[in-house]
């Protein structure tokens, strides 16, 4: 396997998740490239400390410019607060490195467009993180939707629900403040996950009406005081998309306050002849609708049917760390020209398209109107 030197800027929740996916790369059996974590940059010493458990990670620094000057770093994964995306992504490209960006790809639409322009001008390989489409259930939804078996599409619902913000004692962090998360709030936090498959299937919203809600205006700041929280926490986007010349309702749901939903990613596509439904709430199960004299919803338990084969037994259940690893396999194999028709990571065009949806949602909420995209 050809090794690719990886640097991580921002070693928090996602930075560590990526590092652990690299550490069990031996589980993949049909990839020709292998990530090797060689450097990490984070401002916080206890965060940096964790990376000392990775033997190949020989550069651990507080200054990401030092990481960008390291010739062993070929690809940089950046997982920092949204207000820092544009500056750091542009610095990565200027340093001549390939970029695995995080969503929402800039703090707002204007920022995402500037990043995309810099990507195009740099000639570097750039993709944006979005892992749920690599789940076997998600892959089946895509295949079923593309099969043409559903007849005329009646409606699509795609969403991502969290519930921990219902806990008023949960401390505020950068994701609950517009200055660092972006005015788009939950749209920037969870929106790519809801939009990615519809956009990949060509179902771009043509116009939308948004219902956005805020959560608790104040939360503990973790230091004994209270902090102001001003982001949108729940978003329902009622959109129209065009499929085969017809207007089709596409609802996109992103919630931080959905009772009982710990990390529920779901998608449903319904047509006149058939339909499909998948949710991580029931992570093994794919539901298929069959029309006829009698109408059936039938279900099947999916196994470990991942885009990239693994040593894991075919009947075993996949989870979040597995799809993170599959996403990296797709990134590195596409970068090497070896994707061979498998599902590729979100592109910069798709990331900008999500920001166009979020900007329209803010305008719709502000004016109480339907906004054309
Ligand atoms: N794909 C996913 O499923 C997923 C899940 C969660 C978050 N995210 C995205 O990942 C990104 C990071 O989110 P997170 O949850 O990991 O956040 P986090 O707060 O856990 O980690 C961010 C890290 O960045 C570091 N940092 C801040 N400024 C820095 C700088 N100038 N140089 C180096 N390090 C710096 C912080 O010290 C912190 O450790 C965001 O864009 C977020 O939207 C993606």
Q: What does this protein look like?
A:
The chain has 373 residues and is an alpha/beta fold. The chain has ten helices and 17 strands. The chain has helices at 13-23, 45-50, 64-68, 85-94, 109-122, 136-146, 178-181, 186-200, 320-335, 348-367; strands at 2-9, 33-41, 59-61, 75-78, 98-101, 126-128, 153-161, 205-214, 218-220, 226-228, 232-243, 246-255, 264-271, 274-279, 285-290, 296-301, 371-372. It has a nine-stranded mixed β-sheet with strand order 16-15-14-13-7-12-11-8-17. Helix 4 packs parallel to helix 5 (109-122) and helix 5 (109-122) packs antiparallel against helix 10 (348-367). The longest helix is centred in the last third of the chain and has 20 residues, at 348-367. The N and C termini lie far apart (44 Å). The model has no long low-confidence stretch (mean pLDDT 97). The structure holds nicotinamide-adenine-dinucleotide. The site of nicotinamide-adenine-dinucleotide has 22 residues, from helix 1. Nicotinamide-adenine-dinucleotide is lined by residues 9-14, 41-44, 47, 64, 79-82, 84, 102-103, 129, 131, 189.
Write the layout of secondary structure elements.
Layout: E1 2-9, H1 13-23, E2 33-41, H2 45-50, E3 59-61, H3 64-68, E4 75-78, H4 85-94, E5 98-101, H5 109-122, E6 126-128, H6 136-146, E7 153-161, H7 178-181, H8 186-200, E8 205-214, E9 218-220, E10 226-228, E11 232-243, E12 246-255, E13 264-271, E14 274-279, E15 285-290, E16 296-301, H9 320-335, H10 348-367, E17 371-372
Parallel strand pairs: 1-2, 1-4, 2-3, 4-5, 5-6, 7-12
Antiparallel strand pairs: 7-13, 8-11, 8-17, 9-10, 11-12, 13-14, 14-15, 15-16
Bound molecules: nicotinamide-adenine-dinucleotide (NAD).
């Amino acid at each position: 396997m050809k090794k690719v030197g990886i640097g991580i800027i921002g070693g928090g929740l996602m930075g560590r998740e990526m590092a652990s996916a690299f550490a069990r790369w031996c589980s993949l059996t049909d990839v020709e490239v292998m990530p090797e974590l060689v450097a990490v940059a984070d401002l916080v010493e206890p965060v940096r400390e964790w990376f000392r458990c990775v033997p190949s990670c020989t550069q651990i620094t507080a200054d990401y410019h030092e990481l960008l000057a390291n010739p062993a770093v070929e690809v940089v994964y950046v997982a920092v607060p949204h207000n820092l995306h544009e500056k750091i992504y542009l610095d990565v490209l200027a340093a001549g490195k390939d970029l695995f960006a995080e969503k929402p790809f800039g703090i707002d639409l204007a920022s995402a467009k500037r990043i995309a322009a810099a990507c195009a001008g740099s000639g570097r390989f750039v993709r944006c993180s979005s892992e749920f489409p690599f789940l076997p259930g998600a892959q089946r939804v895509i295949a079923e939707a593309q099969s043409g078996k559903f007849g005329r599409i009646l409606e699509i619902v795609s969403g991502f629900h969290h519930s921990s913000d219902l806990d008023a004692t949960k401390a505020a962090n950068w994701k609950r403040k517009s200055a660092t998360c972006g005015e788009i709030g939950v749209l920037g936090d969870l929106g790519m996950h809801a939009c990615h498959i519809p956009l990949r299937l060509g179902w771009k919203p043509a116009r939308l009406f948004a219902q956005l809600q805020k959560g608790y205006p104040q939360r503990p700041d973790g230091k004994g005081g209270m902090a102001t929280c001003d982001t949108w926490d729940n978003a329902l986007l009622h959109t129209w998309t065009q499929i085969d010349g017809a207007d089709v309702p596409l609802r996109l749901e992103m919630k931080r306050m959905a009772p009982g939903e710990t990390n529920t990613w779901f998608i449903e596509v319904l047509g006149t002849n058939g339909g499909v439904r998948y949710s991580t709430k029931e992570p093994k199960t794919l539901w298929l609708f069959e029309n006829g004299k009698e109408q059936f919803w039938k279900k099947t338990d999916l196994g470990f049917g991942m885009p990239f084969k693994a040593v894991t037994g075919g009947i075993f259940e996949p989870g979040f760390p597995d799809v993170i690893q599959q996403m990296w396999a797709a990134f590195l194999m596409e970068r090497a020209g070896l994707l061979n028709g498998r599902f590729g990571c979100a592109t910069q065009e798709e990331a900008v398209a999500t920001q166009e949806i979020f900007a329209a949602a803010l305008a719709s909420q502000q004016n109480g109107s339907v906004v054309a995209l």
